[in-house]
Amino acid sequence: MHGPPLIGWLLVALCAATGTYCLLQTRGEPPGPGRRVARAEALMGWGMAAMAVPSAVLDPRPWGPPAFAAVFGVAAVRAVGHHHLHHSIGALAMAYMAFAMMTGRPGAPGGHGHDASMAAGGDMASNATAGGIPVLTGALLAYFAVYAVRSGLRLLPMTDGTVTAAGAGAPYVGWSRRPELRHACRLTMAIGMFVMLLTL
User: Fold this and answer.
1) Can you tell me the distance from the alpha carbon of 40 to that of 101, in angstroms, rounded to the nearest whole number?
2) What is the CA radius of gyration of the chain?
3) Which residues of 135-155 are buried (b: 16+ CB within 10 A; e: fewer)?
4) Per-residue pLDDT tens digits for 18-63
């Protein structure tokens, strides 16, 4: 990922925390669709965290990008089979960034690492073609931007009196199954994906 290592480490922390929460969430979910969704989101969170590690610390090439592409390619197929379009798009985006890492020119890995020219203050636009297809990257950026806004709107407090009154008598929901935490995790991953695509 082009840009300061600090951005990479922030993404690592956020995505790893999100993946951990989703993994813990599987313990509170009964076997079925809910648990499959939690597992898919945990895989996405940890995969994003691994991909965002600055290459100065861990350069995954040559084995890393093919492994990412294979894992998330399988995850995309499984998501389609379970009718989870968003998870399929997310997994395909991860596989796409992995392919961009493989095709990027040496010293400027697509989707990963810190280019020396950026460290020297070079223009990010000059490295925009290091990996990835601009049209496809733009489409994915638009998708995750809209998804992030949508997830953020779901976090807005509901002030309607009827909803509040109905929620007052609702049964207690454990922290691992609280809907606002789920939306917060999805918002975090959407923003993380947007940033990773933006710096591809």
Assistant:
1) 22
2) 18
3) eebeebbebbbebbeebeeee
4) 999 888 888 766 777 778 888 888 999 999 999 888 877 777 777 8
pLDDT in tens, 70-111: 999 999 998 887 778 999 999 999 999 988 888 764 433 344
Q: Is 52 exposed, middle or buried (0-12, 13-18, 19+ CB in 10 A)?
A: buried
Q: Using CA atoms, how far apart are residues 124 and 107, in angstroms rounded to an integer?
A: 14
Question: What count of Cα atoms within 13 Å lies in the side-chain half-sphere of residue 17?
Answer: 12
Helices 33-52, 64-81: inter-axial angle, 10-degree rounding = 160
Q: What is the pTM of this model?
A: 0.74
Q: What is the DSSP letter of 65?
A: H
The alpha carbon of 31 is separated from its chain's Cα centroid by a whole number of angstroms, namely 24
**Number of neighbouring beta carbons within 10 Å of residue 57:** 12
